[in-house]
């Protein structure tokens, strides 16, 4: 997931369809997120970028960097800006999209689009008819056509967790959703880990800035959300940038991904120490967590002030906002 300076946000979920994802190297869902954000100034532009790249290059490849394992998936996307939102679901180069105009929506590991389709691959229906997946007479239901068996009827943990909020879609409510381990939204197991989380607030009034809260560390139930605002000359934060390996990077060698480098940044490593403290010294761990959550609360309150004040934000006020938040977090860890 990610955001850009235009207030466009894109989230990606891996989905399994009746059409196996290709193991050949192509564009991963994460590549499509990055490229959509790089080239799209609106949600619709980002969607158009993604589907054009699907058509030209296709999707596929191993989601794991470790070449000893291979997992391939198709992709679903939630693409939003200040004014509109789209759900885009794909299978190979074929796709369908729904424009969201009201309510609360989420994407999950199952396909969710049914008969309400506002844009689609021009050959989508001809293709599925040729495969014998749709007879052309009944209503075209995207998830029924592309899902394995009854996967499209499975429950969505994200939707269930959202429903618990009772209609509250504040930043704090979304943070609570992302921390919901009981529902399965937040995962921390030996085989899988929620690696990072983002909550974005996108005011419809363009005079107010978009505010993005990033953890930059795994497991949001043990991480804090730190605010970031796009402004000119925003201060870079090397302590949350993965190390560069240049030409020695396994991603650049042929054959690729034959070794797995240590890509942890400084904040990630410090967070791992804090996680160990939480597990091995409950009293000290809980004290540290209370301090971190208090810092998070201060950040949320400061951003609420920015989003409710009448005067225009001075960019100099937030140019080093995220840098300072990361620096403060590291100091408490140390």
UniProtKB/TrEMBL annotation:
This is Secernin 1. One of its GO terms (biological process) is proteolysis. InterPro entries: Peptidase_C69. Belongs to the peptidase C69 family. Secernin subfamily. It comes from the Eukaryota. GO terms for molecular function: cysteine-type exopeptidase activity; dipeptidase activity.
């Amino acid at each position: 997931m990610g955001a850009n300076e235009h207030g466009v946000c894109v989230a990606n979920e891996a989905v399994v369809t009746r059409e196996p994802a290709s193991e050949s190297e192509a564009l991963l869902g994460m590549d499509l997120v990055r490229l959509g954000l790089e080239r799209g100034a609106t949600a619709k532009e980002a969607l158009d970028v993604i589907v054009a790249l699907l058509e030209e290059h296709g999707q596929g490849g191993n989601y794991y960097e470790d070449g000893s394992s291979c997992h391939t998936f198709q992709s679903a996307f939630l693409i939003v800006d200040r004014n509109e939102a789209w759900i885009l679901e794909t299978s190979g180069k074929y796709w369908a999209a729904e424009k969201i105009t009201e309510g609360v929506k989420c994407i999950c590991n199952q396909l969710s689009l049914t008969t309400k389709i506002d844009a689609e691959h021009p050959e989508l229906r001809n293709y599925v008819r040729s495969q014998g997946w749709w007879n052309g007479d009944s209503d075209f239901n995207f998830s029924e056509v592309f899902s394995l068996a009854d996967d499209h009827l499975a429950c969505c943990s994200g939707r269930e967790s959202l429903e618990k909020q009772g209609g509250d879609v504040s930043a704090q409510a979304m943070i609570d959703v992302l921390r919901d381990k009981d529902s399965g939204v937040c995962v921390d197991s030996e085989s899988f880990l929620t690696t990072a989380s983002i909550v974005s607030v996108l005011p419809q009034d363009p005079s107010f800035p978009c505010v993005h809260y990033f953890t930059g560390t795994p497991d949001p139930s043990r991480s804090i959300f730190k605010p970031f605002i796009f402004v000119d000359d925003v201060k870079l934060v090397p302590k949350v940038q993965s190390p560069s390996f240049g030409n020695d990077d396994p991603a650049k060698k042929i054959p690729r991904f034959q070794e797995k480098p240590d890509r942890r940044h400084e904040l990630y490593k410090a967070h791992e120490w804090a996680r160990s403290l939480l597990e091995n010294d409950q009293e000290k761990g809980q004290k540290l967590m209370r301090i971190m959550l208090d810092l998070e609360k201060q950040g949320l309150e400061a951003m609420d002030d920015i989003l409710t004040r009448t005067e225009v934000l001075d960019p100099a006020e937030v140019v080093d906002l995220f840098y300072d938040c990361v620096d403060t977090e590291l100091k408490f860890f140390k």
